[in-house]
Amino acid sequence: MLSVSGLTTEFHTRVKTTRAIEDIGFEVPAGVAVGLVGETGSGKSVTVRSIMGLLPTQGRVVGGRAEFEGADLLAASGKELRSLRGRRIGFVAQNPFGALNPILSIEKQFANVVRAHRKISRGDLRDLAMQRLESVQVRGAERVLRGYAHELSGGMAQRVVIALAMVHEPSLVIADEPTTALDVTVQRQILDLIDAQIAGGDRSLLLVTHDLGVVAQYCQQVVVMQSGHVVESGAVADIFTAPQHPYTQQLLAAIPAVPWASEAVQKEVPIV
Amino acid sequence: MSLMELSGIRHVFKQSGKHVHAVNGVSLSVDPGETVAVIGESGSGKSTLGRVALGLISPTEGVVTFDGTVLGELSKAEMRAARASLQVVFQEPFESLNPRIRVGDTVAEPLIIHDTGLSREERRAKVAEVLERVGLTAEQGKRYPRELSGGQQQRIGIARAIITGPKLIVLDEPTSSLDVSVRARVLELLRDLQRELGISYIFISHDLATVASISDRVAVMYLGQIVEQGPTQEVLTNPKHPYTKALMSATLSTVVGDKRQHVPLRGEIPNPSEAPTACVLSGRCPIELPECSLGPIEPRRLAARHEVACIRVDTPLVKESV
Amino acid sequence: MSERTLDRRGSGWMFVRANPGIVIGAGLLLLMLLGAFFAPLPFDPVTPDPANVMLSPSGQHIFGTDSNGFDVFSRVIAAGRRDLPLALIGTAVSLVIGLLIGLPLSSKSRYSEGFMRALDAFQSFPLIVLSVTIVALTGNNIENIVYAIVIINGPRFIRLIRGEALAIRDGRFIEAAVASGARPRRIVFRHIMPNVVDICLVQSSLTAANAIIVIAALNFLGVGVSPPDPTWGSMVQAGAQGISLGQWWVAIWPGVAIFVAIASLNVLANGIQRRVEGG
Question: Which of A260, B161, B272, C261 could form a disulfide with B87 if both were Cys (CB 3.0 to 4.6 A apart)?
Answer without folding.
Answer: B161
